[in-house]
Amino acid sequence: MSLNFGRPQLAIPGPSIIPDRVLNAMHRPSPNIYEGQLVDMVDTLYPDLCRVAKTSHKVAIYIANGHGVWEAALRNTLNPGEKVLILGTGRFPLTWGEMARNMGIKTEIINFGMQADASTQALQTALEADKGNEIKAVLVVQTDTASSVKNDIKALRAAMDATGHEALFMVDCIASLGCDEYHMDDWGADVTIAACQKGLMTPAGIGFVYFNDKANEARKGTMPGEYWDWKLRTEDDQFYRKFDGTAPTHHLYGLREALDILLEEEGLEACWKRHETLASAIWAALDVWGQKGVTSHNIEDNSKRSVAVSTVKTAPGDAKKIRQWCEHHAGLTLGIPLGFDGGDEDSHFRIGHMGHLNPPMVLGTLGTIETAMKALGIPHQEGALSAAAQIMAKHTS
Ligand SMILES: *Cc1c(COP(=O)(O)O)cnc(C)c1O
What we know:
Layout: E1 9-11, H1 20-26, H2 37-53, E2 58-63, H3 66-77, E3 83-89, H4 92-102, E4 106-113, H5 120-129, E5 135-141, H6 153-163, E6 168-172, H7 184-187, E7 191-195, E8 206-211, H8 213-219, H9 225-228, H10 230-235, H11 249-266, H12 268-291, E9 296-297, E10 309-313, H13 318-330, E11 332-334, E12 348-352, H14 359-376, H15 384-396
Parallel strand pairs: 1-11, 3-4, 3-5, 5-6, 6-7
Antiparallel strand pairs: 2-8, 7-8, 9-10, 10-12
Bound molecules: pyridoxal-5'-phosphate.
């Protein structure tokens, strides 16, 4: 018998759950794209997007997913033949690097594997070895959505500064913006990229490139082409230039609502705290299950775990069975493994816990996973939900 009925729950690391209010804000007739309410509303998005990334610099909005803004960031700052250094944690920086290579950019990769964050020492050594300043940019992700590791952006910047190297520091915050603490200016990122469908709770389709003056200087030597050029999008007074054509009208209304929820109602700092608490509850449940079982954290050190996604290791084959049981019998969709190979593909699943999420949703997800383990005869210690509840109870008192 299947119990899959009622509202399905998505617990994948992007797209995330979209608040009904965001969906409702999008449900409207097409607006005038030349003047009036839409144009005025869009002006309010830029300062609020900067508040989310804690920057006083500029942000360009693209009709694109994360891959689109990866490309935009590269096109505005680099030329074919130039070199970038990739801090290869998990899977996502490597994919960004493949894109760079396809654009004729040379890549140097330090691969930290699927279970570690980027080492400041390795970064420092690579930059010190680059006597001719061949490396023009360092590419890193704050959260690697495949391994669920979190990189220490501030410490990596300090390691760059210690070498005096001039490379740009480009940080992919697609899975972490609006979830994990981030300070673009104080932590010294030159470029930050993000997209709307994860912590920002808006249907996939718009992406953001934040850039400071140093990155903007680098743009002057490149040929980003018209569509990807961030200058038009941030400096031209004509509204249609901000999107190089028709604005993504309904997405922008959705984003406005999401930013109101995030900044005006919950508050960014409270949102970071909520993510931390909910993530800690999930980790506590995983700790308990693992005491008598086969599930464990992919990232052992909890200070190096993302608060937006958790990658869970199981016995071979169990991860896939759990995912399939949850989806077919309970309407809960968990994340597939990414980046694991060598027969390890069916030994991991991911829990997305980013954005529009509260204790009933988290406990529902955990309870459903436990139900799947019971139904499938997968060994686990009892008491995981109680441990999760205790964490949440403690944080609200
Ligand atoms: C989701 C994600 C991407 C890719 O975004 P798409 O919208 O799927 O192109 C890139 N980097 C990170 C860290 C992500 O989490």
